[in-house]
From TrEMBL, chains A, B:
Gene Ontology cellular-component annotations: cytosol
InterPro entries: AB_hydrolase_fold, Esterase-like, S-formylglutathione_hydrol
Function of the protein: Serine hydrolase involved in the detoxification of formaldehyde.
Source organism (scientific name): Adineta steineri
Catalyses which reaction(s): S-formylglutathione + H2O = formate + glutathione + H(+)
Spans through the membrane: none
Entry similarity comment: Belongs to the esterase D family.
UniProt record, GO biological process: formaldehyde catabolic process
EC number: 3.1.2.12
Localization per Swiss-Prot or TrEMBL: Cytoplasm
GO molecular function: carboxylic ester hydrolase activity; S-formylglutathione hydrolase activity
Taxonomic placement: Eukaryota, Metazoa, Spiralia, Gnathifera, Rotifera
Protein name: S-formylglutathione hydrolase
Gene3D superfamilies on file: alpha/beta hydrolase
Amino acid sequence: MSSPSELTRESGAKAFDGHQYVYNHESSTVGCKMKFGVYVPAKAEKERVPLLIFLSGLTCTEQNFITKSGVQRLASEYGFIVANPDTSPRGCKIEGDSDNWAFGEGAGYYVDATESKWSKNYRMFSYVNDEFYGLLIKNFNVDPNRIGIFGHSMGGHGALVSFFKRPAQYKSVSAFAPICNMSTSEWGVDAYKKFFGQDENLWKQYDATELVASYHGPKPHAPILIDQGSDDNFLAKYLLPKRLINACEKASFPIYFREQAGYDHSYYFIMTFLEDHFKYHKKEFENSK
Amino acid sequence: MSSPSELTRESGAKAFDGHQYVYNHESSTVGCKMKFGVYVPAKAEKERVPLLIFLSGLTCTEQNFITKSGVQRLASEYGFIVANPDTSPRGCKIEGDSDNWAFGEGAGYYVDATESKWSKNYRMFSYVNDEFYGLLIKNFNVDPNRIGIFGHSMGGHGALVSFFKRPAQYKSVSAFAPICNMSTSEWGVDAYKKFFGQDENLWKQYDATELVASYHGPKPHAPILIDQGSDDNFLAKYLLPKRLINACEKASFPIYFREQAGYDHSYYFIMTFLEDHFKYHKKEFENSK
């Protein structure tokens, strides 16, 4: 495949009969060059196929998921394009964007900041759900009626928020060890203070647990799938899944939360349960035809 | 599982119902602390299981294979322990051991050096085939009658040499993009001059193409499996598979060499064909009962 015109291919390698690419492009949304990974299965040479967007967690670039998860085998077998953006703008040189691994570069939280210091570049919500979403449909053989989103940790939250705020765009959502209640999680409080200032009502606009309570979009056919390792060091203090589970129950929003005994927060956990997430998304795509 | 006494556990993560560990130990063979990865499937808690030793290529540590290949899924499914050592001694501070990514640290070539400068520490052949081999049998639930070895690039060569020199220890051998004729490959010539001096007869003692010609051990039941990507940048100048294929033919030693169209030298290539190697080793283990 030749490189789409607005995209610059940084690397490509054949894997499971398809190709794992890394591209970059100049993003008008976040005002810098952005990289992303995209696996294109052989099947996409002949027909439009489903798309899964994967959002990574804190500290990740576009490399972690494509290097460590084993996703290529599944994307090939299921015939899905799988695309994963970087986790933040980079190289914008905003004071304080690199002091802390949990904020700024590698930690964009998939929100559109409102504070002037950050609001020009830290617009990852719009980047993912408008610009990135659009360029994938435009440049790859994606069936726009079969698009799902999932992610890990900060990216699991980003996936849930994307789904709740843009139900028309996604048929399905799932998550690995998501930060579930960002506006009360220590990471989220620190980041949202900077991105949004002191008005906590703004924080709640990017909080999965808050958003499900007011969600009025179509409900997924099957409960949304969330896997959480029981030995995850971040579970008690940062991830707070019970709050999301309770909010879903209260809102009669179907959620299938699985606590996986003995698993931690790493890609070893993700790789183990990744196929179950493919099965879940596939089923939603079939039910949505 | 508690940590075996001579080993120090650096990390452990549950994956596919088993565990991916990294251990270190003080190696008497190479005179420094050595790390290795070992995946222990759940099955090994109940019974002795086969062992595959994987040798990595130039620049690798014990991390590359366990992070990038997706081996845990297969090791779990097939019920194999899979162990992978580091690719060289480290921290020995020998002048010239870190000047070149293709020699010294991260590039031990799985040989026992004879030149005095290197011969104290650069004894990776004995390390892998005596000390490491022995500690795996002693400390993990390995069936010593079902042990195979495989590897990638420099490690593919190391696996072939280990098999040809120690046929009693291994039931099976396979390789991904091995350096096939080390004593004439540019990398090998540079390294072997340093490790062995100018006597090319010493070089040939660690050369798979030379060794198969004089091999008198038992022949494997099925041809040994070698996969090679056609788009591998190192193929023409460094890997030289035709010389090994010709030598095997001449020696009536069975080899199944597969050129995989479009694949490169990366872990994306390895992950794609890894299951075929598991199938090959499993079959040899079954035939060896």
